[in-house]
Amino acid sequence: MISQYNTNLWIKILKKEFSFDDFRPMEESHRHYGLRRKLVNLLKTKGINNSDVLNAIGKVPRHAFLDKAFLEFAYEDRAFPIGEGQTISHPYTVAYQTQLLDIQAGDRILEIGTGSGYQAAVLAEMGAQVYSIERIKKLYDRTKPILKSLNYRKIMCFYGDGFLGLPDLAPFDKIIITAAAPEIPETILKQLKIGGVIIIPYGEGEKQLMLRITRTEEYHFEQETLDTFSFVPMLKGKEEKR
Ligand code: SAH
């Protein structure tokens, strides 16, 4: 994105068509780059040690996924409202779930809960092909063009109920659920490749347990229980309100 921007700016400079405003985003991107470096260092101190995850967090412009009101704080380790009662997860939570996925370039990932699109962008930055579902039409309509404008071609957005997954595109190498799942959806487990993992914040109420479930054989799954987090609920059905 940045190099594309620079090329456009140089064309403008050569044609003498630039204005003061053309330089503003450039300052911004340097500043944001610095803030991202700080965020990456913070995540390291919190235990994120996968260099591919840290590199991706260092690259994805989180400020582009947030309402302008929160721009100043985009690189703090905080969750923010993204409208419709939903939130963009803490960068630590995004990094934690991504680290558990152990992304390899080319992995086909199903994400349930597109929300702001930030988590999907981090996965795409690591070379994954991402299929992301959102149940709230307004969020789907807002996020899809943001991802397009940032040139994330490896992300396909779907408006639908994540409890159903994407059976036509299954099986997936890995699955990530980014909302609190009240149950472990069997339909989703069936869409996982043998050897694949699903990362799922499990439980209702305030706190969820992060689970990593590995499909070791056709009918055999192994479950690990990890740390506690707080997610918005995974809800059934679609919300069409415009
Ligand atoms: N990954 C997101 C996190 C957003 S919060 C990000 O990076 O910003 C969780 C999202 O899950 C919300 O947008 C919510 O609407 C969505 N969600 C909840 N239940 C869902 C379901 N059954 N299917 C698809 N999306 C769901």
Question: What is the structure about, briefly put?
Answer:
Helix content is 35%, strand content 25%. It is of the alpha/beta class.
- CATH class group: Alpha Beta
Largest sheet, in brief, is: 7 strands, mixed
Shape: globular
Query: Which oligomerization state do the chains in this entry correspond to?
Result: single chain
SSE string, helices as H and strands as E: HHHEEHEHEHEEHEEE
Instruction: Classify the secondary structure makeup into a structural class.
Output: alpha/beta
Name of the CATH homologous superfamily: Vaccinia Virus protein VP39
Question: What's the helical proportion of residues?
Answer: 25-40%
* Rg (CA only): 18 Å
What features would you describe in this structure?
It is a single chain. It is globular, with a radius of gyration of 18 Å. It has helices at residues 2-14, 20-45, 51-59, 91-101, 118-125, 137-149, 186-189; strands spanning 80-83, 86-88, 108-112, 129-134, 155-159, 172-177, 192-202, 208-217, 220-229. It contains seven helices and nine strands, in the order αααββαβαβαββαβββ. It starts with a helix and ends in a 13-residue tail after the last strand. By secondary structure, it is an alpha/beta fold. α1 packs antiparallel against α2 (20-45) and α2 packs antiparallel against α3 (51-59). A seven-stranded mixed β-sheet has the order 5-4-3-6-7-8-9, with helices on one face. It has a two-stranded antiparallel sheet with strand order 1-2. S-adenosyl-L-homocysteine binds at residues 86-89, 112-113, 115-116, 118-119, 133-136, 139, 161-163, 178-179, 232, 234-235.
